[in-house]
């Protein structure tokens, strides 16, 4: 049996007395498109930072591609791609300069760097203003550049923190097709997003975190069956949406619906 592409075992992260992530455990199989969901402040971005070596866990272990992140961070980072929460681009470079820099950091030769940079700029529709600095890009353009940089070295595992935020509908379709193509070629993708329709369309497995703790984990069909079995009045063959599953699991069906703003009611 293949070892997990990503494995988190009892991962905890504390900031002083505040526990942001609490004893989180899950595995992501190779070739899986894995969705990681939760309300704002639930611990999603903190978890991604620990999985990608940007933040050390207070306790617990992270393994990626069979390697211990605490022991072999450089070896792991050479094989993964990351679109982080803040993107962290170099604003005083052009898009081509930034991609060439990233490619060389990953050890790609000059010919491969030049070829992949040109292809990615065309693919992301960023080639029409070659002298424009990254700091002058729109948020959506910066998001596309961050994704291009994350895949330029053909990573085996790709971590995406809200990759579709600020991206227009046409570009979103292009990105979805690219990600599905990566899955078809055997890559593993770990996605966080508040757009549940996208997660439902792309991901085969989902984990849900709430207040720092993992509250659900499994295939979409397993989650549908588990939630439907405890919902009163739900038909056995009724297909719950991911939104219904999410709201049921994180407890968003009661007080939030009853509360109203008096001046808008």
Describe the protein:
It is globular and about 60 Å long. Helix 3 packs across helix 4 (110-123). It contains 10 helices and 10 strands. The chain is of the alpha/beta class. The protein is 36% helix and 23% strand. The longest helix has 16 residues, at 169-184.
What's the helix and strand layout?
Layout lengths: L5 E10 L2 E11 L4 E5 L6 H8 L7 E6 L2 E2 L4 H5 L2 E4 L11 H11 L4 H14 L15 H13 L5 E5 L7 H16 L3 E5 L3 H7 L2 E6 L2 E7 H9 L13 H9 L4 H4 L7
Parallel strand pairs: 3-8, 3-9, 6-7, 7-8
Antiparallel strand pairs: 1-2, 1-4, 4-5, 9-10
Helix pairs in contact: 3-4, 8-9
Q: Predict the CATH topology of the domain at 1-79 and 191-265.
A: Rossmann fold
What's the number of helices? Answer: 10
Major sheet, described briefly?
Answer: 6 strands, mixed
**Percent of residues in β-strands:** 15-25%
Radius of gyration, rounded?
20 Å
Structural class per helix/strand content?
Answer: alpha/beta
For the record, what is the CATH homologous superfamily label of the domain at 1-79 and 191-265? Answer: P-loop containing nucleotide triphosphate hydrolases
Could you tell me how far the N terminus lies from the C terminus, measured between alpha carbons in angstroms? 57 Å
List unreliable stretches of 5+ residues.
none
Considering DSSP H and I runs of 4 or more, what fraction of the residues is helical?
25-40%
Using the alpha-carbon principal axes, give the shape. Answer: globular
Count of strand segments: 10
How are strands sequenced across the largest beta sheet? 6-7-8-3-9-10
CATH class of the domain at 1-79 and 191-265: Alpha Beta
- The succession of helices and strands, N to C, reads EEEHEEHEHHHEHEHEEHHH
* CATH architecture annotation name of the domain at 1-79 and 191-265: 3-Layer(aba) Sandwich
**Mean model confidence by pLDDT:** 91
């Amino acid at each position: 049996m293949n070892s997990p592409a990503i494995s988190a075992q009892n991962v905890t992260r504390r900031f002083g007395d505040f526990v942001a992530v609490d004893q989180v455990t899950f595995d992501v199989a190779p070739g899986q498109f894995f969705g990681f969901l939760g309300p704002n402040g639930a611990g999603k971005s903190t978890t991604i930072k620990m999985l990608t070596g940007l933040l050390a866990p207070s306790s617990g272990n992270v393994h990626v591609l069979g390697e211990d992140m605490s022991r072999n961070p450089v070896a792991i980072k050479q094989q993964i791609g990351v679109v982080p929460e803040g993107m962290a681009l170099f604003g005083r470079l052009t898009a081509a300069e930034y991609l060439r820099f990233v490619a060389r950091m990953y050890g790609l030769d000059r010919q491969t760097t030049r070829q992949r940079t040109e292809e990615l700029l065309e693919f992301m529709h960023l080639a029409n203003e070659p002298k424009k600095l990254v700091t002058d890009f729109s948020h959506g353009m910066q998001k596309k550049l961050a994704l291009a940089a994350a895949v330029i070295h053909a990573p085996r595992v790709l971590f995406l923190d809200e990759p579709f935020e600020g991206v227009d509908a046409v570009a979103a379709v292009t990105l979805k097709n690219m990600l599905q193509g990566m899955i078809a070629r055997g890559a593993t993708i770990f996605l966080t997003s508040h757009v549940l329709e996208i997660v439902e369309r792309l991901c085969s497995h989902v984990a849900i975190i709430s207040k720092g703790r993992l509250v659900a984990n499994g295939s979409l069909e397993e989650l549908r069956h588990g939630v439907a079995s405890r919902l009163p009045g739900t038909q056995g063959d009724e297909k719950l949406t991911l939104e219904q599953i999410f709201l049921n699991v994180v407890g968003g069906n009661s007080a939030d619906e009853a509360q109203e703003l008096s001046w808008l009611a």
